[in-house]
Amino acid sequence: MKLLQGKTVLITGGSTGIGRAAAIGAARHGADVAINYVSSDDKAHSCIAEIEALGQRGLAVKGDVALPETASDFVSRAVEAFGRVDVMVSNAGICPFHSFLDMPVETVERTFRVNLHGAYFMVQAAANQMVKQGSGGAIVAVSSISALVGGEFQTHYTPTKAGVHSLMQSAAIALGKHGIRCNSVLPGTILTEINKDDLADAEKRRYMEERTPLGRLGQPEDLAGPIVFLASDMAAYVTGAALLVDGGMFVNLQ
Ligand SMILES: NC(=O)C1=CN([C@@H]2O[C@H](COP(=O)(O)OP(=O)(O)OC[C@H]3O[C@@H](n4cnc5c(N)ncnc54)[C@H](OP(=O)(O)O)[C@@H]3O)[C@@H](O)[C@H]2O)C=CC1
Ligand SMILES: C[C@H](O)[C@@H]1OC(=O)[C@H](O)[C@@H]1O
């Protein structure tokens, strides 16, 4: 069964990793897909080629989500191409690992702007378009297990993921009357570009794997199903929810 047949799905950070897997997953489920990205032109275009090979329409729009105008540009380019917005997946993010006591101000500010301000403006722009259309919609934000637990080298990052989780809760309240559902997914450790260097440390990688009851770290494709589900009418009565997608890592105390 195709869960997103005839829908238009917008995904930020769709060139690689979780966003790319979600974009391909949405296309497999019958959606036309617009992706935003900031630097990887080749990867963005190859994602669009995969979407088109699945028989769906694809659009890549370059822009830095830290800038509010990127959000209005992304939404209006998608509407120009596909006519409407049914789903927004706010996914773009960065995590430049760094110790706390000597954290550079610009690393903190950039991480906040990309991960939290970026999500805020994208969600707001998509919601305004959905309200204008008058037929509801679904917003899925990619938060993290890090919304719930800390990280020694992530003191600038974990607050942004808690913020995204909180944004979905408040947006669910603000947008429920318009039939717009807002939920978040909380991935555990997923093997992508964002943590390639961090997990190059074999000991750290083994430790993370051992903490995971399912016995392996996640692949980007592990997020595609949960994101498609929350975006679809199968989740018609789900809003303000947060779904851990972590192989059980969070509940594994001892
Ligand atoms: N991997 C993991 O273990 C986990 C990841 N997450 C979250 O998942 C999301 C996706 O990360 P993941 O797939 O792992 O990482 P990747 O590095 O593979 O993907 C990041 C994506 O975000 C885009 N991006 C980065 N900065 C910007 C920006 N300023 N404006 C627009 N797009 C931008 C990148 O575009 P480009 O390629 O053009 O640079 C890329 O498409 C992030 O929000 C991350 O916090 C949450 C929990 C765990
Ligand atoms: C980048 C990290 O490896 C990854 O991102 C998160 O949100 C979690 O902390 C993961 O471990």
Automatic annotation (TrEMBL):
Record's keyword terms, sorted: Oxidoreductase
Keyword Endoplasmic reticulum appears in the UniProt entry: no
Organism domain of life: Bacteria
Coiled-coil ranges per UniProt: none
Pfam families documented for this protein: adh_short_C2
Sequence ranges assigned to domain Ketoreductase in this UniProt record: 7-194
Family: Belongs to the short-chain dehydrogenases/reductases (SDR) family.
Protein name: Glucose 1-dehydrogenase
Originating organism: Sphingomonas humi
Species classification: Bacteria, Pseudomonadati, Pseudomonadota, Alphaproteobacteria, Sphingomonadales
